[in-house]
Amino acid sequence: MPSLELVNPKRRLSARYExxxxxxxxxxxxxxxxxxxxxxIHSALATLYVITLLLSAETLTEKGTLLLTAVCVGxxxxxxxxxxxxxxxxxxxxxxxxxVAAILITCALIIRNHRxxxxxxxxxxxxxxxxxxxxxxxxxSRVALWERDYSEVRALLTKLKTQGVVDLRAxxxxxxxxxxxxxERIPTVAANAAALxxxxxxxxxxxxxxxxxxxQDDATFLDLMVAIFENQSYFEGxxxxxxxxxTNKLVLLTVGFPVDVANFNRVIxxxxxxxxxxxxxxxxxxxxxxxxxxxxxATVGALSASLAHELNQPLGALVVNAQTxxxxxxxxxxxxxxxxxxxxxxxxxxxxxxDIIQSTRSLLSxxxxxxEPVSLADLVSETQALMDGELSRNRIAFExxxxxxxxxxxxxxxxxxxxxxxxxxxxxxxMAATPEELRRISVSITTADGQGVRVSVRDSGPGLSADILxxxxxxxxxxxxxxxxxxxxxxxxxxxxxxxxxxASNHTEGGALFExxxxxxxxxx
Amino acid sequence: MARPEKLYKTPVxxxxxxxxxxxxxxxxxxxxxxxxSRLFTSAEDYxxxxxxxxxxCMLVDVKMPGLTGIELQAVLNEQDTRKPPMIxxxxxxxxxxxxxxxSGGAFAFLGKPVNFSQLVQCLERALKR
Lengths: 525, 129
Fold this sequence. Notes:
Radius of gyration of chain A: 46 Å
Number of helices of chain B: 5
Structural class of chain A: alpha+beta
Strand content of chain A: 5-15%
Order of helices and strands of chain A: HHHHEHHHEHHHEEEHHEHHEEHEEHHEE
Structural class of chain B: alpha/beta
CATH superfamily of chain B: Response regulator
Number of domains of chain B: 1
Distance between the termini of chain A: 91 Å
Helix content of chain B: 25-40%
Radius of gyration of chain B: 14 Å
CATH architecture of chain B: 3-Layer(aba) Sandwich
Order of helices and strands of chain B: EHEHEHEHEH
Shape of chain B: globular
CATH class of the largest domain in chain A: Alpha Beta
Largest interface: A-B, 23 and 16 residues
Strand order of the largest sheet of chain B: 2-1-3-4-5
Number of strands of chain B: 5
Helix content of chain A: 55-70%
Strand content of chain B: 15-25%
Oligomer: heterodimer
Number of helices of chain A: 17
């Protein structure tokens, strides 16, 4: 029955030591009782019971202590009664009162101490199991997790801020060593099994490991620094890491920054390998683009074959009719009746050829692709993903900016994408001779004064010469050795057919600038 | 029109083509050459004709609904009656079709649109046989 348990079952001292102490306490209590009862010492001897209480405090439970207190108080009172009987000796009563008060206060303190210790123990246990849970999650998670010490890099960033740095990206551009310096200041505290698996088996304690596996041209690390610089509580981004065997992997990076600055020495960094997913998505995009291209080519092919066949008959007849007419005219005298008959047939066959072309045209417009709501920002980022390989191969920085409040347009998605691909491809090729660190494509999406949405594609290449600007959109105008010169002409035609436009100019700060206006509602015949 | 008498019979040329424009253009061409023509809209139409013996030469389209020109030639080859020289015309002048036509005994194989003087010369040669 726990309610009657007087001795604390959880011993903290060795049994021998404990028995010794208890014996001493017991002997002390007896001695005090004896002296208090049978000698005539005029002092509050009973106060010494406090020592007994204190000595047995470790061994007894709360109830045990209360009981012992009661015994001590009882003994004191008994001694008083034995020595003084019923005489009212004020001094003796005062001494008794002091002793009892001391015993009671000690009892109260012991119990308070007990409880405080108990609470401390309990919260300690809770803390321990929480830490254990955290460890289990950390170690066994399938997500690659690191504990990294960001305190030094945070101190560096804070220092920069006090020095008046406002735009960290500009600072990084001006100081090429900045990124490397930051990376060096982030030691890894711990890494879980999934993390080691993701990067190949690199030692978690290896200081150089952080620097080694961040890909050279990875922009995500700077984004992460900016997030810390701007005191954000959370960071998520896609980055490229290099594993121990040298392969590149695309990862989703998540970092939750602690609220308490002191905790920046153990920040949890999570990585999720999305290489497969991204590859699949890219393959899907490419397949879609190929399909669109193939079906367009197939349509054109089938169409021209059927047109050729259909037109061949009336055209063949026309040639024969015209030559026969010539023969009737060459006769002496010319057979004008026959000439007239031939001419009539020529008119009729020409009309037939024209009808064939007309009906093909109406057939074509019936087969126009469907309009759908298109988010131009999404389309740009999809197209960027599609051309990612081409962009990174040519070391081109790609920036997109979107003005707030841009609505979806109703358009033929694949047409807009083809125009974008064309413009970006042109921009890439235009920057072939531009130094690598200056290569940049900026796409901005803004409203076009009620006309629709303006998508501008700007490069940092040499721009367009006056000569080229003049005939840029004419068919068969090309600056490329292998080009047909049809791309921009087709792009403009495609946009104009839907009520949009495509213009070219040179940006005031250099580079070519192509602007397409996409109407909110495409024209759909 | 007064017919020339037995001494000289106007050559009769059969035109087998499913396209009306072509049929009529060729009809006029043959008329301008001084010959006479008979028009058929299909191979079946031609096979159904009764007095095929009077026909001296045939201008046949290869690709027609129903029997093709090549199949028409095969049917005529199986029949005992005398077969006039056949001149094929087609927009699809692939080698396979040409070989099939020539090995079936075709007189000539011409591409469309028809080369006018080539066709006229071809007709003259066929009628001399």
